Amino acid sequence: MDTLRIRHILQQTAGTTCAIRGWVRTCRHTKNVSFVELNDGSCLSNLQVVCDENTVLTDEDRHALQTGASVEVHGTLTESPGGKQTVELLATSVVVTGGAPADSYPLQKKRHSFEFLRDIAHLRSRTNTFGAVARVRNTLASEIHAFFQSRDFLWIHTPIITSLDGEGAGNLFQVTTMDPAAVPQSEDGTVNYREDFFERPSFLTVTGQLHVESYATSHERVYTFGPTFRAENSNTSRHLAEFWMVEPELAFCDIDGNMDLAESFLKTVLTGLLDTATEDMAFFDLRIRPGLLDMLSGVIEKPFVRITYTDAIAELERSGKSFEYPVRWGSDLQSEHERYLTEERFGSPVIVTDYPAGIKAFYMKQNEHASDDRRTVRAMDVLVPGLGEIIGGSEREDRYDLLAARMDELGLDRDMYGWYLDLRKFGTVPHSGFGLGFERMLMYVTGMQNIRDVIPFPRTVGGLRY
Ligand code: 4AD
Ligand code: MG
């Protein structure tokens, strides 16, 4: 007898005999009949299993048949009288593979808060919401790969351990095998990294960009998609210390091509997701963020607004709003500013370009500028309503002298970044790329409000259970 997954069973007609396996969501016993709602993670829906007096079920198993138990059921599909599904399974036999004592199983039938579920992250995937998040996360990743693969981009596996601060922002987790109680020292009293594993300071990467740029200068279209680490002391609902980032990089491409790529990327991936994950997306629309599906469909249809940072500042000044953080040319946009632009002023995703050099990374291409204190770079951030920055990117500085000068200015060690500078020495080319925060995108498409709830095991400042 075939073991089927519930997702497929629900497409079958009455009369099919099959076996299924899964976990009991709820169980209701009457004198002669037990009704079991079973979920196997393959879809949001449960399958109703009916055990009657003809079902082979030991007394011990009947007793163990409770919420949380794992079971294997054999039976025949029958038409479901008035149920939510068209079919249910009339069990010929039920075996409880593992019970779940009701007095200690933490997931009860009632709705639990997301805060409570964060404390039982090892069990929360068994709830409707986290089951759906896991499936949407999988579909989104798959749509992202499909987008790039169908456009000839090569997936490059950039390293996780690196010697470089790829953003020059200093939020690095150090990697070492040195004993913290006995750190080897040089004669001048500084740490002797020659004794460390890599014989130099090493870190978890904050971006795959620098490494993937090297492959953009050989394969033209590349991307990296992997875990990224930032020791930012930001305990917010949008920051993780370990998150996943998608970073395409394109040679022979300027900032306009980069914006076009980002916009078509977001729209195509969204379209694919809405077409594929219909049941789960309908759930998020109903339970998590009413209006979500309309909002996302609207995003697919309308062109994104494109505006320079300088014009965005002018818009904020003109708004007449009193923001908590003052609006000043040269300061970074705060979340309240991003919200005003995306939610109130434009009501759509907004791509802000040409930020002041002082608030952006060293590798961004410098614009011709009128004065030194109004220096801008060809940065492009995609901001979305309800969330703010979802994508950060830029055209890269491809001129050796200008990049080297900027690095000197910022005190970056030219020897360390020598290989990166080489890319501008040998066959340099205009090139651009961006990074999409995968969990930010998941928040956007599911309407989940806390980034801790869209990654299986979140890592945040002071938060590392599991
Ligand atoms: O803007 P960021 O810092 O850009 C880069 O890392 C570039 N190297 C990308 C590139 O051009 N290849 O980060 C990119 C995106 C942000 O827009 C945000 O969505 C996400 O990564 N992100 C975070 N997501 C969760 N937690 C954090 N701490 C994040 N920091 C950035
Ligand atoms: Mg950014």
What does this structure look like?
- This protein folds into two domains: 93 residues, Nucleic acid-binding proteins (OB fold (Dihydrolipoamide Acetyltransferase, E2P)); 294 residues, BirA Bifunctional Protein, domain 2 (2-Layer Sandwich).
- The chain is an alpha+beta fold and 466 residues long.
- Helix 4 packs across helix 6 and helix 6 runs antiparallel to helix 8.
- An eight-stranded mixed sheet has the order 6-10-11-16-15-14-13-12, sandwiched between helices. Strands 1-2-3-5-4 form a five-stranded mixed β-barrel. Strands 7-9-8 form a three-stranded antiparallel sheet, with no helix packed on it.
- The site of magnesium ion has 3 residues, from strand 15.
Morphology: elongated
- Attached small molecules: 4-amino-1,4-dioxobutan-2-aminium adenosine-5'-monophosphate, magnesium ion
Count of spatially separate domains? 2
Identify the CATH architecture of the largest domain: 2-Layer Sandwich
Q: Specify the structural class.
A: alpha+beta
Topology-level CATH name of the largest domain: BirA Bifunctional Protein, domain 2
Order of helices and strands: HEEEHEEHHEEEEHEEHHHEHHEEEHHEH
Distance between the termini: 38 Å
Number of helices: 13
Compute the average pLDDT.
95
How much of the polypeptide forms β-strand, as a percent range?
Answer: 15-25%
